[in-house]
Design brief:
Order of helices and strands of chain A: HHEEEEEEEEEEHEEEEEEEEEEEEEEEEE
Strand content of chain B: 25-35%
Helix content of chain A: under 10%
Radius of gyration of chain B: 15 Å
Strand order of the largest sheet of chain A: 1-2-3-4
Strand order of the largest sheet of chain B: 1-2-5-4-3-6-7
Oligomer: heterodimer
Low-confidence stretches of chain B: 1-18
Strand content of chain A: 35-45%
Helix content of chain B: 25-40%
Largest sheet of chain B: 7 strands, mixed
Number of helices of chain B: 5
Low-confidence stretches of chain A: 1-44
Distance between the termini of chain A: 57 Å
CATH class of chain B: Alpha Beta
Shape of chain B: globular
Number of strands of chain B: 7
CATH topology of the largest domain in chain A: Neuraminidase
CATH architecture of chain B: 3-Layer(aba) Sandwich
Largest interface: A-B, 44 and 47 residues
């Protein structure tokens, strides 16, 4: 090692040390040390903050996050103020995607099973498998994970989203490049990627063969999932409409996972041969109204939007937050709806919310806090009639804010 | 004061060579994309390993630099350093100084690079070397890129 190389390695170690997050557990500290040691060997320096949280029926808040090659499940009995020592989800280590757009997910089966899904990157660039692990004891231990899809090519099966349907079935949808790869091999053009989905009828223990939902999705934006007022799963994703308009498409799945009808959901007509890397969010009100937030460029400016998705159009579309508003999420609990987003102010990342109690006709705005370091996308979660903001940040760890 | 931190990366998988990357923080990012920094035609290409369209642009820029020695190319991977970052650039034989995101908050680095940029990739900043900067999202073509760089097209 030359003196320059040695200096570089030391600098890398110093960087690694300076970005380490306040730990949620002792396991984090161990992971930090491992990551710092690997910094000079080309491993990523920064901890991936992508995380999900959900309330179990008993009011316990569960959160899942990545540490190295393991997913850890944390539990809070006081709505996110204190967290338990974590439970390891995947006993056998494996690669895990843990960024905000492609984070681990958490859902509950009707029989109380705790389900964790994630993307496992494979050897080739942008390749991956959709994985799912189930716990029969409320998250105290997990069965070995399964791969959800039958297709085992070393290609993209990534950015999965999980919906526990009102009928007890578990639905997963993801971005899949098998059709793109076939087209490439045949030297045919193919726009974007595809969306595939698979259904489980046994609470996530096994999945039926996957089916194609739509050709021509965007390649690396998160997919939004929600349960429709009749209990059926809805998925909303960024699509590539001809020739290159990166608007959103919405689908309702039948119980066998096949698509009822794929509809265009937004009409901003952002024409770009590029990757927004910024997916939407969707929530359905008890009256069936579909409320969404998304990011698009419209009239030359990239902004976060809110609107109600109706057949052939968007009702009440408006800009959310300021010029830097990003990563908006939305959820509904009873008659209350919350939109949450983060916004960099030139120094820090601010967390904002808007609450509506009249079905989206009017909103009141709240400032929830700020982060000095890196931060995950914020999420709105619900428990009964209450709404919470959940946000994992580099320096503060995992936090939940009750939305008044 | 030196703001740029050099990271030398000895790639475990391709141990035959070592590549130098420079880790950005918000101050070095601001300097890198300041109009006054560039006194010659310069492309600053923001890209990531996740972005298929970025490869198209990087391939074009590599060719443009090969054909015109007066043109400078700087690449910025908007992610932390990994073996895949280096391998992607090497596969496409992309020349020029190589930057990656460092320890600073990604939001802060992104804002400092280009406050109008909202994270979409590829994002390309074109400097003509005379104080003008043009920012473009998505894939670009050679002719309009050369025009924004203040270069006359050779026929």
């Amino acid at each position: 090692m030359t003196p320059l190389h040695r200096l570089g390695a030391i600098a890398a170690l110093m960087i690694a040390a300076s970005v380490l997050p306040h730990s949620a557990s002792a396991a984090d500290a161990k992971d930090k040390a491992t990551m710092a040691g690997m910094a000079g060997m080309g491993k990523k320096i920064r901890v991936e903050l992508g995380s999900s949280a959900a309330f179990a029926k008993d009011g316990q808040l569960l959160a899942v996050a990545k540490q190295g090659d393991h997913l850890l499940l944390y539990r809070s009995g006081d709505q996110g103020t204190h967290w338990s020592s974590p439970v390891i989800v995947n006993a056998r280590p494996e690669a895990i995607s843990g960024d905000g757009e492609n984070r681990p997910k958490i859902a509950f089966a009707q029989d109380g099973g705790v389900l964790i899904s994630w993307t496992k990157p494979l050897g080739k660039p942008n390749s991956g498998e959709v994985r799912l692990a189930r716990s029969d004891d409320g998250g105290a231990s997990f069965a070995p994970p399964i791969t959800v899809h039958r297709d085992r090519q070393e290609i993209t099966h990534r950015f999965e989203t999980m919906v526990a349907g009102g009928d007890g079935r578990i639905y997963l949808a993801w971005i899949d490049k098998r059709d793109l790869e076939s087209a490439k091999a045949a030297k045919n053009p193919y726009r974007g990627a595809a969306i595939y989905a698979a259904v489980s009828e046994d609470g996530g223990r096994s999945f039926k063969p996957e089916v194609k939902i739509a050709d021509h999705s965007c390649e690396c934006c998160r997919i939004a999932g929600a349960v429709d007022s009749d209990g059926a799963p809805l998925f909303l994703w960024r699509h590539v409409f001809e020739p290159n308009e990166r608007d959103h498409a919405l689908v309702k799945l039948r119980t066998d996972g096949t698509p009822a009808r794929v509809e265009r959901a937004t009409f901003d007509r952002w024409k770009v041969d590029g990757c927004p890397h910024h997916g939407p969010a969707l929530a359905v009100a008890p009256d069936g109204t579909r409320h969404a937030v998304w990011f698009n460029q419209k009239n030359g400016e990239g902004r976060a939007f809110y609107g109600r998705l109706v057949a052939g159009g968007v009702e009440g579309q408006r800009i959310v937050g300021g010029e830097q508003a990003a990563r908006a999420d939305i959820a509904i609990a009873g008659h209350r709806m919350a939109i949450l987003w983060k916004e960099y102010d030139g120094e820090r990342t601010q967390l904002h919310a808007e609450i509506s109690e009249d079905g989206g006709a009017s909103f009141k705005r709240l400032a929830l806090g700020a982060a000095n370091g890196a931060s995950d996308h914020p999420r709105v979660i619900s428990f009964g009639k209450e709404l919470f903001a959940y946000w994992r940040t580099e320096l503060e760890g995992m936090r939940a804010f009750r939305l008044p | 004061m030196k703001r740029l931190v050099l990271i030398s990366l000895l790639l475990a998988c391709t141990a035959a060579f070592a590549t130098t990357f420079i880790a950005l923080d918000r101050k070095s990012a601001r300097m890198l994309t300041d109009k006054a920094t560039h006194t010659a035609p310069t492309i600053v290409a923001l890209w990531s390993t996740d972005c298929p369209h970025c490869k198209t642009n990087l391939g074009l820029f590599a060719n443009m630099v090969k054909a015109d020695a007066s043109l400078r190319l700087i690449t910025v991977a908007v992610e932390p350093l990994s073996a895949e970052v280096a391998a992607s650039l090497d596969r496409s034989k992309v020349p020029g100084k190589r930057y990656v995101y460092g320890a600073d908050a990604p939001e802060a680095i992104a804002f400092a690079l280009d406050s109008k940029w909202r994270g979409e990739l590829p994002r390309t900043l074109l400097f003509d070397g005379h104080g003008n900067r043009v920012a473009i999202s998505g894939t670009v073509d050679r002719a309009s890129t050369r025009k924004s760089l203040g270069l006359t097209d050779k026929r």
